[in-house]
Write a structure and sequence with these properties.
heterodimer, A: about 70% helix, B: alpha+beta, four-stranded antiparallel β-sheet, two-stranded antiparallel ribbon, 6 strands, about 30% helix, about 30% strand
């Protein structure tokens, strides 16, 4: 009984996304494939305790899920034309079962479908988290700070679009690969961002998403071995994850990166990130995520050298701004230059950033306040007020308030 | 499955198409594109439309439809033509749409057609 249950749970964790990708690749209907798989796992929980665990649990689950999909298609006149393709899938599956081969891994196609340009950008990350990692809509909704019903609707709409618009489960052509891969990487990084923003760890469900994003990054690299940008993204997330314990002091107060105690950083995570970055560099194809990871790598080196190479950081930010000029990169470059060459140089550069892009960008106002304070200018107080107003995290807000008090 | 490319054009495009002096140059690219679609074996149907000032619109309320001069909506881009293609998936449709003759301001909307019942004569 417990063995059977454990086998079901193992199959659920390890095979669910693989089976889902296999079924959906043949029907383009993610929602129907999810329902059929849920039924198949339910049937396994009922049957396996009595009959014993089948020799090939994945093949058993696939057969059960496929039967349900065909039944559903027969009852649905509109989808009846899909039944022949399902039957073809069934034949392929029988061959696999005969050969004792595991179900082919088509999750890379699933990742590309989730981040397809025809899918609403706000649905891409949630879709990956649900289909690839099996997270439920309520948990994803909590991480994205939207109501569960709204997230459920966003996910259903995206799945209906995939099915009705006929988005194919195919790998992009080589010419389309760079932008399509960039969308997959961005969607995974967005999942990490939701976990990272919740610095306080106030919501354990949000904090968990950072680890889930790292899992997605590992899966992508497993599916695209040697892809330097996938290595760069995983290295970036690991460098950030390594600092989790150092981001708050014993009293729970916010500690900025420059003042963190490096002995609290996770050495194994930093080592893994560095190895990934080295491997990526050997490919000789630089990209946004490798540069972002390299920036974090410079910060990490303080654990060894005891100092931060701000000129080196400024140089890396120059490169980042050139290939991916996001507001975050522009502000990061100014911060590095202000450390390397002084507050006046930083302030001059900060004013070149278009005002309309930073009106609600908290890191800009925190940096502006810091630079103005260092220059002894009275406008610092107003900039601190604005940074505090834009800050969601209570600990970071308290930190800024302490700095502001030092100015006033 | 069937996909329809809805090709929207600007007022300037429609003028170029109507003016005998620019008409030929404006339309020169289309026969080549149509031939490529036929050669690929994916072409189902296509047609350019006369300019929006030739349009007549029927509005359905409670009783008899109201007949009005002009297009459905007064927008900057107006429907200028449509092409129906038979393709395996959306990426193929987007790919073919991207190869259509290009003019600044042109918009192409790609939509899947509603699947026909299996016994219908026009099932694809």
């Amino acid at each position: 009984m417990t063995d059977a249950r454990r086998a079901v749970e193992w199959a659920a964790r390890d095979s669910r996304s693989r089976l889902l990708a296999f079924l959906a690749a043949r029907t383009r209907d993610l929602a129907a494939a999810e329902d059929a798989l849920a039924d198949a796992f339910g049937a396994a929980l009922e049957r396996w305790p009595e009959t014993g665990v089948p020799a090939r649990p994945e093949a058993w689950l696939l057969t059960a899920a496929r039967r349900r999909l065909i039944d559903a298609a027969r009852h649905d006149a509109v989808r009846r034309e899909a039944a022949p393709t399902l039957l073809a899938a069934a034949e392929a599956e029988v061959e696999l079962a005969d050969e004792g081969v595991t179900v082919p891994d088509e999750r890379l196609k699933l990742l590309f479908v989730c981040a397809h340009p025809a899918i609403d950008a706000a649905a891409r990350t949630p879709l990956m988290l649900q289909t690839v990692l099996g997270l439920d809509a309520a948990r994803i909704a909590a991480a994205f700070l939207v109501k569960p019903a709204a997230m459920g609707q966003r996910l259903s709409r995206a799945k209906a679009k995939i099915r009705d618009a006929g988005i194919g489960f195919v790998l992009p052509r080589p010419a389309d690969l760079p932008p399509r891969l960039a969308a997959v990487l961005a969607a995974i990084y967005a999942a990490y961002g939701t976990g990272w923003d919740d610095v306080a760890g106030a919501d354990p469900r949000r904090r968990g998403l950072a680890a889930e994003a790292v899992d997605l990054g590992r899966l992508l690299l497993h599916l695209l071995p040697g892809e330097p940008e996938a290595q760069g993204l995983l290295a970036l997330m690991l460098h950030c994850e390594a600092r989790r314990a150092a981001r708050r002091d014993a009293a729970g107060a916010y500690v900025p990166l420059n003042e963190q105690d490096p002995s609290l950083w996770s050495r194994p995570m930093i080592a893994e990130a560095e190895a990934l970055l080295d491997a990526a560099e050997r490919a000789g194809r630089l990209g946004r995520f490798q540069l972002e990871a390299a920036i974090q790598s410079v910060h990490a080196r303080r654990a060894v050298t005891g100092r931060t190479d701000w000129e080196g950081l400024a140089l890396l930010y120059e490169g980042l701004v050139r290939i991916a000029p996001s507001t975050g990169a522009l502000v990061g470059r100014v911060a590095a230059i202000a450390q390397a060459r002084g507050a006046a140089a930083g302030w001059a550069l900060l004013q070149e950033i278009p005002a309309e892009t930073v009106a609600a960008y908290q890191p800009y106002w925190a940096l502006a306040a810091d630079l103005l304070a260092r220059l002894g200018r009275t406008e610092a107080a107003a900039a601190y007020d604005r940074a505090i107003a834009l800050c969601e995290d209570p600990a970071a807000r308290a930190f800024l308030a302490r700095r502001a008090a030092g100015v006033g | 499955m069937l996909y329809t490319m809805l090709i929207y054009e600007t007022g300037a495009d429609f003028s170029r198409r109507a003016d005998p002096a620019t008409r030929e140059a404006y339309l020169a690219e289309w026969p080549r594109y149509a031939q490529a679609l036929r050669d690929a074996g994916i072409y189902v149907f296509g047609s350019g439309l006369q300019p929006p000032d030739t349009a007549t619109t029927l509005r359905f309320g409670g009783g008899e439809p109201q007949v009005q001069d002009g297009p459905f909506a007064e927008t900057k881009e107006q429907l200028g033509g449509l092409i129906v293609l038979n393709l395996p998936d959306l990426d193929a449709a987007l790919d073919w749409a991207a190869r259509a003759p290009r003019y600044p301001g042109r918009v192409i909307e790609v939509r899947p057609n509603v699947p026909s019942p299996p016994n219908s004569v026009c099932a694809a």
